[in-house]
Amino acid sequence: MHSSELMVTRIADRQWHALTGDRVVGSGEASPRPDGRLFLSIDSWQDEAFDQLATAMLADLPTPLYTVVDEADLELTAQWRRAGLATRRREWEYRVPTDPAITGLDSAPPPDVEILDFGAAEVHSLRELDRTIRTEVEAAAGWQTMPAEVISPPIDPANYVVAAQAGRYAGLCRVTQPTRLPRIGLIAVRAEAHRRGIARALLGRVLGSLHRAGKAWASAEIDESNAAATALFEGIGGARSNSTLELVWR
Fold it and tell me: Taking a C-beta distance cutoff of 8 angstroms, is the pair 142, 135 a contact?
């Protein structure tokens, strides 16, 4: 594909370069997620290079195709919309206090539930709970509504606080720390154990542990359609700090 001196070429199965002469002025990549969906990314400072790369990638790859953008990045969002992608969903990032005096959360679980602290869960049982929750989420909202980093994470008990009930694991909360701000990547409870206060107990234990470790804040990502999670986090003082859009080309 040519536009004046600009040329876009496919250099690998899922990689493209935009060149002006011998100089690379942009690059594009399609990355498969564990759920099989292809997500696009383009790195270019030139609008013309971005547009030509997007056109080439959309023409060469099977649909549907996806990308994720920071909603505050108006320029990048406009570039993808110009290419024809439309909003599929919005995810809110929340800044969450950890101090129990602010959240009002008690880390004590319901009478018949035991909370296992970070690192205490047995890995085989944790994997079984993870598979069960994935199946239940997929049958309801769909696992693709989850943040990208929790689609298929490694199961490391050090990142999990777990609720046990009647001899089996009933719920989990996964926390990672990619930066100095801990991230609550997933909080979920088996369908049969809903409405027992287990999610609040898990969150209370997690935030209390982070507070004792000197972390005043944590972050969490919530799909805007998830009314229950939104109510839970806003009810403990969480506030929206950012948002991302998942865009799709069908």
Answer: no
